[in-house]
Amino acid sequence: MNGQARYFEDFSVGQKLAFGHYEVTREEIVEFAREFDPQPHHLDDEAGARSMLGGLAASGWHICAMAMRMCCDALFVPGAARGGAGVEDCRWLKPVKPGDVLRMEVEILELRAHPRRPVGFVTMRWDLFNQREQVARIVTTPLFATRGGA
Amino acid sequence: MNPQYWEDIEIGARRELGTYTFGEDEIIAFAKKYDPQIFHLDPQAARQTVFGGLIASGWHTVAVWMKLAIAGRAQEKQEDRGVLRAGVSPGFEGLRWLKPVRPGMTLTYSSEVTAKVESRSRPQWGLVMSRNEARDESGALVMSFIGKGFVQRRPK
Q: Which residues are paired to A112 by β-bridges?
């Protein structure tokens, strides 16, 4: 798979794709946190160091937003797929800190065509990696894809 | 007083987190940064999509839940009503975006404790699960998820 337009028919179970390059800055972490999640460990170095995060780190919602941006750029905006109606499961496994460089790896777990409508559900596992090859966030969820060729 | 430690939290306890009105400008600003799909970005072009108009990113809708939850804690601290010793979150489950959020819509947010689990790996902390919701002006459910958060155990 690559970043080209994709329809439901383009996906198959076990397929993997890798995309994205997101450089995380202190300014962006703090800006997002001020707006949506102003807890000390997302705003302040010392408070971050005292927390479970071990240093200033991004809000989990910010992590999801950054992952969404990478998915939009690679999949949703150029292609036929679009964001789904939810997220089955999300785990924040590692803190995301200033200077981290994030990327995505996605694996297709299940395909299900809609019985009547020209769409299908593609269940994927969305791993967000940092530059130390650690998985910082795992999301498992289906998305809709338009069925092509009809 | 509000619960401060994991032991103080009661299953079924419900918090009303307040309301939030989504403006067109902020819907677009969020989308430009994090979710640049056309139906979040361009009011004209969005009319041609399945949503029939501009709608907020689901991540925006849920980020506002966090914003209101933190604002509520800050208010309680200011009023000296006791502050929950909350830590970080290991994740969430079952996030559903059920209805589109359009410019000018006002959502009402809430949080209700559904379960408590001890943490084996972190004995000073316990996990609290909560069902978190946003509803529209007619009371219809717009967004919900099961949140998970660490809360400090009462020191022995």
A: A121
Nearest CA in chain A to B122: A52
Tell me the one-letter amino acid at A12.
Answer: S
Buried b (16+ CB within 10 A) or exposed e, B110-149: bbebeeeeeeeeeeebbbbbbbbbbbbeeeeebbbbbbbb
* Residue A29 belongs to some domain of the structure: no
Rounded to 10°, the helix A60-71/A26-36 angle is 110
Taking only the tens place, the pLDDT of each residue in B36-86 is 999 999 999 999 998 999 999 999 999 999 999 999 888 887 787 778 888
CATH, residue A87? 3.10.129.10
Domain that holds residue A90: 8-24+66-146
pTM of the shown model: 0.92
In a domain, A54, yes or no: no
Rounded Cα distance between A23 and A32, Å, is 15
In order of their start, the domains of chain B are 6-152 (3.10.129.10)
The sign of the torsion formed by the CA atoms of B28, B31, B36, B37 equals: negative
- Number of structural domains (chain A) is 1
Supply the ipTM of this predicted assembly: 0.95
Please report residues of B whose CB lies closer than 8 A to that of A64: 59
B35 interfaces chain A, CB cutoff of 8 Å: yes
Residue A52 lies in a domain: no
Q: Which token pair is B118? A: 């001890």
